[in-house]
Write a sequence for this structure.
């Protein structure tokens, strides 16, 4: 069997984009994913994406996912599905669990694109069936085509909360309200406007106090909060809901990068502990690259661009691209990334990413 | 760049205020609306997005660089074809024709819920807050393949509500059996 030169861990938006770029340059690339099909979160994204029209904006995420898989096949990317990477050990050895056996593999370059996990929120009753992550809701309705309940409360008015609310309505469910502890809506106004037109209230400076019910969620008690996020007495309201969706942020799924020994930095704007990386997406360890939500929580378009950077850099490191060609290509990608990171919503990302580079320069 | 919607506006309510809309370069003035069917762009935040610019065959929408700039609408070039409506990921573009009839105007909007209404159906026109403000008749449902599953529905509404009605009440039906 041909020896794999790059193992990409995670076949979502970033991982597939990285694999495609590296394989197109000539590298032998294998994507490892624990799911039965690659594509990560893309197939759940049934809405049209923002971004630049020249780069697929206005196209639904699931279509972008289908196109990525096709491009990967055409580029000769191999995939190993239903396979969990449980660790990375010195000498770039990957520990795998596949079915009932384990394996150990190694490659000169590893690209980690493990994505993110949803943050939880603890409140009385949060272990009742019916309380779930908004991402889980999205998987149920858009992948499994199961409506988790008839009437939901959405917690969090960031883009995820707003988009999943809209998709719950599309699935035939109802959303009693969106509560947001901050005094403003964090997601895009246009996403908020869509759900408002569809009749959903957005209650800013509100939070969920508790979930009630015998066997599962039957009610949610919400209340207004003050500027210190403390409930204001006398403002409690009871909502008859059977589902409570939590859209309270994401954190980089960074275990493998920790095990590998990558250096980390704590950057709240990017979701917490993030492996430090340079402009080529290389971590503090030579030959280990990071991309996508693992390298800082953003969104699918930036994840794909970061994946491309990692893929190009890896191909260059293996000698498949000359420095000049790689630089030219990387500058194109960097320009597109920069364009996605401006404006009042992207500024925080851009500044946080610059923080890494500053930290590295001082080292 | 200026942060829009600090007080009562899209950032606190999810609904762009009258001031935000009128201050945005995509919102046509009364004079332009009186000339015939025209699009109304309700995009008031600096998000990185520009497919509307490419969708317009007349060059009536300009965003330029950087793509976070608000769309500038050149109303005199717009013939109301509405190609920008289904492509806007924010569903923030509408078409209004206040010249449709003496007492009636038409409003076109993107729609992605089932069941899809049909031509001739009587439906409830809702405002930006989702409140029913009038009865409306479905004049047209456009959903060609190139709209990629976003239908554009045109309804007739009382003339005075042409800048209020922005969608219709969703009919309750799940496409799944639960």
């Amino acid at each position: 069997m041909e020896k794999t030169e790059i193992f990409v861990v995670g076949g979502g938006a970033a991982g597939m984009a990285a694999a495609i770029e590296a394989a197109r340059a000539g590298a032998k690339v294998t994507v490892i994913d624990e799911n039965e099909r690659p594509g990560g979160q893309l197939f759940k994204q049934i809405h049209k994406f923002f971004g630049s029209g020249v780069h697929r904006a206005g196209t639904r995420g699931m279509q972008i996912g289908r196109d990525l898989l096709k491009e990967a096949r055409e580029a000769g990317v191999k995939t190993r599905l239903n396979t969990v990477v449980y660790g990375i050990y010195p000498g770039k050895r990957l520990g795998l669990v596949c079915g009932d056996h384990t394996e150990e593999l190694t490659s000169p370059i590893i690209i980690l694109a493990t994505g993110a996990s949803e943050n939880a929120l603890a409140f009385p009753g949060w272990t009742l069936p019916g309380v779930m992550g908004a991402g889980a809701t999205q998987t149920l309705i858009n992948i499994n085509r199961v409506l988790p309940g008839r009437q939901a409360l959405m917690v969090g008015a960031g883009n995820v909360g707003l988009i999943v609310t809209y998709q719950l309505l599309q699935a035939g469910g109802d959303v009693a309200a969106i509560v947001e502890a901050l005094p403003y809506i964090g997601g895009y106004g246009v996403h908020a406007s869509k759900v408002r037109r569809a009749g959903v209230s957005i209650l800013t400076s509100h939070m969920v106090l508790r979930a009630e019910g015998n066997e599962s969620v039957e009610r949610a008690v919400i209340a207004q909060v003050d500027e210190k996020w403390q409930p204001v007495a006398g403002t409690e309201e009871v909502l008859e809901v059977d589902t409570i969706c939590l859209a309270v942020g994401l954190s980089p799924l960074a275990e493998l990068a920790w095990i590998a020994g990558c250096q980390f930095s704590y950057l709240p704007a990017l979701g917490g502990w993030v492996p430090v990386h340079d402009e080529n997406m290389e971590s503090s360890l030579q030959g280990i690259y990071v991309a996508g939500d693992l390298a800082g929580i953003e969104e699918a378009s930036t994840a794909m661009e970061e994946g491309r950077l990692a893929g190009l850099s890896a191909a260059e490191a293996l000698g498949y691209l000359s420095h000049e060609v790689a630089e030219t290509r990387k500058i194109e990608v960097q320009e597109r990334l920069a364009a996605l990171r401006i404006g009042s919503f992207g500024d925080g990302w851009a500044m946080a990413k610059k923080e890494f580079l500053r930290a590295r320069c001082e080292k | 760049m200026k942060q829009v919607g600090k007080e009562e506006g899209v950032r606190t309510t999810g609904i762009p205020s009258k001031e935000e809309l009128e201050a945005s370069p995509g919102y046509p003035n009364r004079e332009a609306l009186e000339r015939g069917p025209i699009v109304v762009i309700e995009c008031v935040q600096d998000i990185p997005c520009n497919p509307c610019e490419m969708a317009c065959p007349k060059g009536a929408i300009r965003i330029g660089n950087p793509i976070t700039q608000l769309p500038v609408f050149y109303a005199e070039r717009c013939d109301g074809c509405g190609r920008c409506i289904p492509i806007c990921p924010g569903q923030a573009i509408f078409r209004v024709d206040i010249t449709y009839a003496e007492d009636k105007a038409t409003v076109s909007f993107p729609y992605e819920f089932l069941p899809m209404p049909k031509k001739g159906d009587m439906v409830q026109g809702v405002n930006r807050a989702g409140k029913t403000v009038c009865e409306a008749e479905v004049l047209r449902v456009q959903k060609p393949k190139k709209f990629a599953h976003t239908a554009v529905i045109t309804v007739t509404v009382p003339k005075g509500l042409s800048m209020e009605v922005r969608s219709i009440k969703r009919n309750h039906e799940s496409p799944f059996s639960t």
About this structure: The helical segments of chain B are 10-13, 18-23, 30-33, 51-55, 84-87. The first strand of chain B starts at residue 38 and ends at 41. DSSP finds five helices and nine strands in chain B. Chain B touches chain A through 54 residues (CB under 8 Å).
